[in-house]
Design a protein that fits this description.
By secondary structure, the chain is mostly helical. Helix content is 66%, strand content 3%. The strands form 2 sheets. Strands 1-4 form a two-stranded antiparallel sheet.
Length: 390
C-alpha cells in the first residue's frame, strides 16, 4: 500500500507477532471447527478468544491508520488537481501507476465501494501477503532441488541468455522468461501456498447440474490443493512436477478459442489453478511477476553455487573421516600405551614380589643357621658342665 513498515526486522509494534498468532489461531480453528463458533470458543478456550480479539484490535488500528492517512493524502492531491482522474490519468498506463490503495479510493469515489469494504480489503491484502511470497519462493526452490529432469539446466540457460551484462533485471527481461514463469506456475500448482480458501455466499444460488441450493451467508471451503492436482484437468501426471505442461498450454492457447483441437488444446477449468487468486483464472497470477523478478535475481547464483556447496560438503565429509581416523589412531595408541604400562607394572610387581620372597628366604636360612649354632653351643656347654661335675 505504498507504506514502508519494516516490522519483520524491527517489530516494536508487535505487528508481525500478531499476524503470526492469528495464523496459528486460524490453523487451530480449522483443526477444531467447533472453535469457529464464537460462544463455544469463549467458553472452551477463553485465552484463545482473548488473544484473537487483542490481535485483531492491534491489526485493525495498524491498517486503519494507514488507510486513513493514505485517504487523506489522496483527497488532498485530488483537491489540488494531482489526483485528477480525467485525461491521461484515465488511460491504462495511468491506472496501472496507482498503487493498490489508491485504486480502491478511485472505486470508492465512484460509489463502488464503502469505507468499511476498503478497510476489509486492505486487512485481507496485508494478511494474505504476510508469508505467501516467501513461502512460495521456498517451495519453488524445493521443487528445483528435487527435480529429476533438466529443469535446472534450462532455467540457467534461459536466465543467462536474457540477463544483460550489467546484471540488472527489469520487467522486460522477466516477461521474456517463459520457462521460469512455467516453472513457478508448476511449483505453485503442485505445492499450493494457500492449500484452501474460504468464500462467503452473498446470495442464494443453485449448484450447476444439481438440485442443491447454497443458502446466503454460508461459508464455502475450496480445496485448492487437490483441485490443482485433479487428473481430469492435469492428466495422469497431475501429481508430478512438470513445468512443460504450462508451456504446452501457452502454445495451444490460441487454438482453444477457435474451436480447433481437443484434449490439451482446450482451456482447463478456470478453478483448476488458483495461486493467490481471489476470483479464479486459468493463467499465472499477477503476483507471479513480482515473485519471478525476485527469484530471477538470485536463482542463477543458487544454481552456480550448488556445485561449490556439494564440493564443500564432500570436503567436510573427507575432513570428518580424516578426523575420525586420527581419533581412532589416537585411541589405539592410548590403548597400546595403557597396555604397555600395565605390563610394565605387572613385571615390576612380579620382580618386587620375587625379591621379597628371595630376601625372606635368605633371612630365614641365616636365622636357621644361627639357631643351629646356638643349639650346638648350648649342647657343648652342657657336656662341659657334666664333665666338670664328674
Amino acid at each position: 500500500m505504498g507504506t514502508p513498515t519494516n516490522f519483520t526486522q524491527n517489530d516494536d509494534a508487535n505487528i508481525a507477532h500478531s499476524y503470526k498468532r492469528l495464523l496459528e489461531i486460524s490453523a487451530m480453528r480449522v483443526l477444531k471447527p467447533w472453535l469457529q463458533i464464537g460462544v463455544i470458543q469463549r467458553w472452551l478456550a477463553p485465552e484463545l478468544d482473548a488473544d484473537c480479539k487483542k490481535c485483531y484490535k492491534m491489526l485493525d488500528d495498524f491498517v486503519g491508520d494507514i488507510v486513513r492517512s493514505k485517504h487523506q493524502n489522496w483527497r488532498l492531491r485530488d483537491a489540488v488537481g494531482e489526483g485528477d482522474t480525467t485525461g491521461a490519468e484515465d488511460s491504462s498506463t495511468g491506472w496501472q501507476r496507482r498503487i493498490f490503495i489508491e485504486q480502491i479510493f478511485h472505486l470508492a469515489a465512484n460509489g463502488e465501494m464503502t469505507l468499511e469494504e476498503i478497510m476489509q480489503e486492505a486487512q485481507s491484502m496485508v494478511l494474505v501477503s504476510f508469508e505467501t511470497v516467501s513461502n512460495s519462493i521456498s517451495l519453488a526452490l524445493l521443487c528445483l532441488a528435487t527435480s529429476r529432469g533438466d529443469c535446472q539446466r534450462r532455467l540457467k540457460a534461459e536466465i543467462a541468455s536474457l540477463i544483460p551484462d550489467s546484471g540488472h533485471v527489469g520487467l522486460e527481461q522477466v516477461q521474456q522468461m517463459r520457462y521460469l514463469d512455467a516453472f513457478l506456475s508448476e511449483s505453485l500448482r503442485l505445492l499450493a501456498t494457500v492449500p484452501m480458501n474460504l468464500r462467503h455466499v452473498s446470495r442464494d444460488f443453485q449448484l450447476a447440474g444439481r438440485d442443491a441450493i447454497v443458502p446466503r451467508n454460508s461459508i464455502i471451503v475450496m480445496d485448492t490443493f487437490n483441485m490443482q492436482r485433479d487428473e481430469r484437468f492435469w492428466g495422469p501426471t497431475a501429481k508430478q512436477f512438470d513445468p512443460e505442461r504450462f508451456l504446452d498450454q501457452e502454445r495451444s492457447g490460441s487454438g482453444s478459442e477457435s474451436g480447433s483441437g481437443s484434449g490439451q488444446a482446450k482451456r482447463r477449468h478456470s478453478y483448476s489453478f488458483l495461486p493467490f487468486s481471489k476470483a479464479g483464472g486459468g493463467g499465472a497470477p499477477s503476483h507471479s511477476i513480482h515473485m519471478t523478478s525476485t527469484c530471477s535475481q538470485n536463482i542463477e547464483d543458487i544454481l552456480d553455487s550448488q556445485q561449490e556447496e556439494e564440493e564443500e560438503v564432500q570436503q567436510e565429509e573427507e575432513q570428518e573421516e580424516k578426523q575420525e581416523r586420527e581419533q581412532e589412531e589416537e585411541v589405539q595408541q592410548e590403548e597400546a600405551q595403557d597396555q604397555e604400562q600395565q605390563e610394565e607394572e605387572a613385571r615390576r610387581a612380579f620382580l618386587g614380589s620375587f625379591f621379597l620372597v628371595f630376601v625372606g628366604a635368605m633371612s630365614w636360612g641365616e636365622l636357621s643357621e644361627e639357631e643351629e649354632r646356638e643349639e650346638e653351643q648350648e649342647e657343648e656347654q652342657e657336656e662341659e658342665q657334666e664333665q666338670g661335675k664328674e
